[in-house]
Write a structure and sequence with these properties.
Blueprint lengths: L2 H22 L4 H19 L11 H24 L2 H10 L1 H11 L7 H16 L9 H31 L2 H23 L12 H24 L2 H8 L2 H12 L5 H18 L4
Helix pairs in contact: 1-2, 1-9, 1-11, 2-8, 2-9, 3-7, 3-8, 4-6, 4-7, 4-11, 5-6, 5-7, 5-10, 6-10, 6-12, 8-9
């Protein structure tokens, strides 16, 4: 991968980890996640007329990815109810590169050199290792792991759909704009109906912070889509999920969650995987 592409994906990972911490620390995580979808969509309403719309061939993949995002939010928020950021986030994101690698290799015949496969495996192993602790053997831990694993399967499938959609869109910016709009059209009305009797008790004072987090996650997702349009899906997906390392550091620094030697070792495994992904052998 080119150095500028690596830097782009790593910055996207950092921004996504910041959003994850903002959602986890929110008094109302559903409101935080919904705001993170609504704010980018409002921006994209303005941009929609300024960009070329995706080609017709890309729309089924765009719509499928937007629908999967709703499922991802649902399982992620359920996992956050019983698990810590430093436990849930690594599993939810760590499994995604494996799902992407399997889909693009088996379905799209994307080449998978040994070094790339090793890099994806190392990154995913390190990410999962970040989540291992005694809580996995409790009832709450099992629920958290189950929901986070479902989120990993969903987001990996979504990333693969985005990769295919971008190849067929002939308009990367248009795809970025319209997928944000499609996601909001699906998610926001559903949440408003679900919370229709509790709108007056929502923590509206958190709205400015959540709106800023929405801008951050929109920028992160736009960077990921841009990287997918330029590079192979499997290494981009694996590199993007180094956001877990950033999330572990943020959880330790700002949320009081433990780090410890094991998580430091896991982070080093992730770093090794990133190096292997970028070996040109």
């Amino acid at each position: 991968m080119q150095p500028d592409l690596v830097a782009l994906v790593l910055f996207s990972a950092f921004l996504h980890a910041m959003w994850g911490a903002a959602v986890k620390s929110s008094r109302d995580r559903l409101m935080a996640a919904t705001t993170g979808v609504l704010v980018p969509a409002l921006i994209c309403v303005v941009l929609a007329r300024q960009v070329t719309a995706p080609a017709v061939e890309a729309w089924p993949f765009l719509a499928g990815s937007a629908a999967l995002h709703v499922g991802y939010y649902a399982f992620l928020l359920l996992a956050y109810r019983v698990g810590d950021l430093s436990q849930v986030y690594p599993i939810a994101r760590g499994g995604a590169p494996l799902v992407v690698a399997a889909i693009v290799t088996l379905w799209l015949d994307e080449p998978m050199p040994q070094t790339r496969a090793a890099g994806v495996a190392l990154v995913s192993a390190g990410l999962f290792a970040l989540a291992i602790d005694r809580r996995l053997f409790t009832r709450q831990g099992a629920v958290a792991v189950g929901c986070a694993s479902a989120a990993a399967l969903i987001i990996g499938s979504s990333t693969a759909l985005d990769f295919i959609g971008l190849q067929r869109a002939n308009a990367t910016l248009g795809y970025i704009v319209w997928i944000n709009l499609a996601e909001a059209v699906v998610l926001v009305p559903a949440v408003l109906w679900f919370r229709r009797r509790r709108l007056n008790v929502l923590p509206w004072r958190e709205l400015p912070r959540q709106a800023m987090a929405g801008v951050v996650v929109a920028a992160s997702y736009a960077m990921l889509l841009w990287a997918l349009s330029l590079g192979a899906a499997a290494p981009v997906a694996a590199l993007r999920e180094t956001s877990v390392v950033f999330a572990a550091l943020i959880g330790t620094a700002f949320l009081g969650e433990p780090l410890g030697r094991r998580r430091i070792a896991a982070a080093l495994v992730v770093a090794l995987g990133v190096v292997v992904l970028n070996l040109n052998l």
